[in-house]
Design a protein that fits this description.
482 residues; alpha+beta; Helix Hairpins; Beta-Lactamase; 2 domains; four-stranded antiparallel beta sheet; two-stranded antiparallel ribbon; 10 helices; 70% helix; rod-shaped
Length: 482
């Protein structure tokens, strides 16, 4: 906020010089009334300004919330669109996957058919092997009968040869026949014995093959069982993929519809945001107008002072001017004796104090003012019960040394600190800057003092300029209640 040019351009006259000696007492009373009315008007304007501050803060919060909601709706729109596109892609991919699964089912079914044929053939082979085994058993039995007959023939041949020998010459022919029959019987018995051995070996081989074919048949059956399970699993998979594709298509359709709703909803948010912004702008304009009215009411107080009014504030005005003059004299003397260089006294190199909340700073003259200003500022607190504080600020609103009751070490609670630790802070608000920069003989302001934690107190602030060797250093402020 720009400083009031009227307030800054007034001539440096004393209160005694502002009141014409011949002015009638009635006129002075009228000026006092005007000044009082202007002061009360200033208070009302400050209250209105405070209300506008609250409305402005709430409007800013609402605008921020609206913009956040607008951003979230836009994000929802983008997310919904992305979800729809992803769902469409999923549906397409699911269709492709369903085709692959169906091809796999066809291949598996063909493989299962071939496996079933092999299993049936293997199972039939086991049966045929069983039949071969039975035939071998029958053949073995027949061979045993042949061997028994050959044994019996051999015995008969032996007996025939005995009888031929007894017959002498007459039995020679029969003996030759009996010998041949015995030889044939021996050959037959040997062949039967060999056949029996071969049949045993063949039976063992057939038995092994029969066991192996049974195992192969069992494995083939297991393959068929697993193939059936896999066939069912692939069928379930194909069904799941189909349902997924249908669901994804449904999501894509609903996402598209939802995106349309969001798209239609966004302009409403934009209109609300625009309206809220316009309202905030009007609030800012109204706030600027109240500040302008406050400047005019303060200028009116200054003008009535020149015409002999504001006698109700005379005590505070004269004290502010006298104390400011004492501080100026103190500063000039300190520079003269070399206690502090002028460059340090006018330094604006504000160094933050680490960890302070609210932020506090130091500069080259802070230690100097801590040593000397309390002796001049503390007695003013006893001037009147309405006095709240008395403190000097530089031209940037920096308050290096406050009253002792407002100069406690900071703690962990920022709200407590804001009330009890007001030294070493820069008050660059409207009132603080005007108090530090006004060159008028005095400046009377009405303002809401921030006590921290959202608490404000309406009070008056009288300030007088502090000029050191012709150079404006800042101002002495006295704040007091109504």
């Amino acid at each position: 906020m720009a400083l009031s040019q009227t307030a800054l351009a007034q001539p440096a006259l004393s209160l005694q010089q502002t009141v014409p000696p011949s002015a009638p007492l009635a006129a002075r009373g009228e000026m006092d009334g005007v000044a009082l009315t202007a002061t009360q008007l200033g208070r009302d304007i400050v209250e209105i300004g405070g209300a506008l501050d609250r409305v402005d803060a709430e409007a800013d919060a609402q605008i921020a919330a609206l913009r956040q909601m607008r951003a979230q709706v836009a994000q929802l729109r983008d997310s919904t669109g992305a979800m729809g596109r992803d769902a469409a892609t999923l549906a397409e991919t699911s269709d492709q996957a369903r085709g692959v699964v169906q091809d796999s089912i066809a291949l598996l079914q063909a493989s299962a058919g071939r496996s079933r044929t092999i299993s049936e053939w293997v199972a039939g082979l086991a049966g045929r092997m069983e039949g071969v085994g039975e035939e071998l058993d029958n053949l073995g039995a027949s061979n045993q009968q042949i061997a028994e007959i050959a044994r019996q023939v051999r015995m008969l041949a032996i007996n025939a040869k005995i009888e031929a020998a007894r017959a002498g010459v007459y039995g020679l022919g029969f003996g030759v026949v009996a010998e041949e029959i015995g030889r044939l019987a021996n050959n037959t018995a040997a062949a039967a014995e060999a056949i029996t051995g071969n049949l045993g070996s063949l039976r063992d081989q057939i038995g092994g093959m029969r066991g192996e074919s049974a195992g192969v048949a069992q494995e083939a059956g297991a393959v068929l069982t697993e193939a059936d399970k896999t066939d069912r699993a692939l069928g379930d998979m194909a069904d799941s993929v189909r349902r997924s594709a249908e669901a994804a298509a449904g999501i894509a359709a609903r996402s598209e519809a939802q995106s349309g709703v969001v798209e239609a909803f966004l302009p409403a948010f934009e209109r609300i945001d625009t309206a809220a912004g316009e309202t905030a702008a009007r609030i800012a304009t109204a706030h600027a107008s109240t500040n302008s009215l406050l400047d005019r009411s303060e200028a009116l107080v200054q003008q009535t002072a020149r015409l002999g009014g504001v006698t109700a504030e005379t005590l505070f005005i004269e004290t502010a001017r006298a104390t400011a003059a004492e501080i100026a004299t103190l500063f000039e003397a300190a520079i003269a004796r070399g206690e502090i260089p002028a460059a340090d006294l006018f330094s604006d190199d504000y160094r933050p104090i680490p960890g302070s909340d609210p932020a506090q700073v130091r500069t080259a003259f802070t230690a100097f003012t801590d040593r000397h200003l309390p002796a001049l500022q503390e007695p003013v607190l006893d001037l009147d019960p309405r006095v709240i504080f008395c403190a000097a600020v530089d031209r940037n609103g920096y308050l290096p040394t406050h009253n002792r009751k407002f100069s406690h070490p900071q703690g962990d609670d920022p709200v407590w600190n804001a009330t009890h630790c007001r030294n070493r802070r820069i008050f660059d608000d409207r009132v603080g800057l005007k108090a530090g920069r006004s060159a008028a003989p005095f400046l009377l302001q009405v303002y809401r003092r921030d006590m921290g934690g959202g608490n404000f107190v309406v009070m008056k602030d009288v300030s007088a300029p502090i000029t050191v060797n012709g150079r404006h250093w800042g101002g002495l402020r006295i704040a007091y209640g109504f």
